[in-house]
Task: structure prediction
Amino acid sequence: MQVIADLRALWPLREFRKLFAVRLVSQSADGMFQVGLATLFFFSPENASTAGGVAAAFAVLLLPFTVVGPWAGVLLDRWRRRQVLLVGNLVRVGLTLTIALLMVTDGVGPAVYVLALVALSVNRFLLSALSASLPRVVDGPLLLTANSLTPTLGTAAAGVGGGIGFVLGWVLPAGRVRDAAALVVAAAVMATASALAARIAPDRLGPSDRSDAAQLRAALGTLARGLVEGARYLVARGTPARALGVMAYTRFLYGVVFIASVLIARNLLADPADSRAGLAAFAAVLGATAVGFAAAVVLTPTLSPRTGVHGWIAGCLGLAAVSQGVIAVTYERVPLLIAAAVLGLGAQGTKIAVDTIVQRDTADAYRGRAFALYDVLYNAAFVGAAALAAAVLPDTGWSRPLFAVLTVGYVLGALGYGFAARRAPEAVPVG
Result:
């Protein structure tokens, strides 16, 4: 298979392996941390079981990420990205241990929520740094394979970490110690990620040109202008702006589906009064989605050279449309899990292609801002989806007319993006 040949060519790249290790370990810690939050916000008996409640919780979690994004872009274009990975993970260690201590001593209160939001915001900053760093250790045709491998296996690592957190929640007796256990383990893994980042040379991940302290302060003071300049650059390049546009569009549609899945798992696939059964049902949905993610890592580098990266995006949107057509017909467990796997393939295949386009066609001096804008659009689209879901979803999560509309939305996205890609000239890749 082509993917095996590409992986054999990719693996000897020593600096890539180092960066890849940081991603896998860091995202496994993310999974442990986020499972604890999911249990707290969505699958504890006293918390959200309605469409409005779930949507509000997601909005609260994601709005700080949207605020962090622009600042991250300015800093990632000026700070050494290796130092961001090293220090950022240490900051997360401190935040996570503080949350664990508060949960053991005082229980869940406002301070826990605030610190959790800060920790998740730091996480998005780190993911932006990882994405902006990848072209510094991989270039040429192998960049597509690297983009297939790293985000998808990073997501898989987060799934493994989440599974560990889930198991800890089942085997430990109920109480504050159980609530804190996954966080303590996650903090240890975050510390390991920081140690792995220390193996990378300080200047290896860029950026090529860095500012001194005075220039950095000036850049932070002119944040809005810098983002506008970055956006204008991406629009002038053409392909990165279109890729970000289709990413935001599909993220909006996926956000509605995701919130519906939480509600379906809790209120239709399980007894609404049994939060643990609802969590298990939702874990099954996430597992099926992960199968789709894994398929994307194999199929994207194998098929996209034949279809073209833009044709692959259009095809992935078509697959997503099929998945929503299935759910519009039935919410029974087996068809729902199959639809989740197909949607996972379509969503991750699109993301891999979008990441590749943005990295390949954006100059290094603008990559940090490009991925900061990526994060802003990514999370703002999900917040918008949460607002829509709160307004239109029933508390059961399933609505045949809504899933029919989502089906049409994915079809229109595939046709619109394919038409725009054919009419527009292809950007010349940059180094």
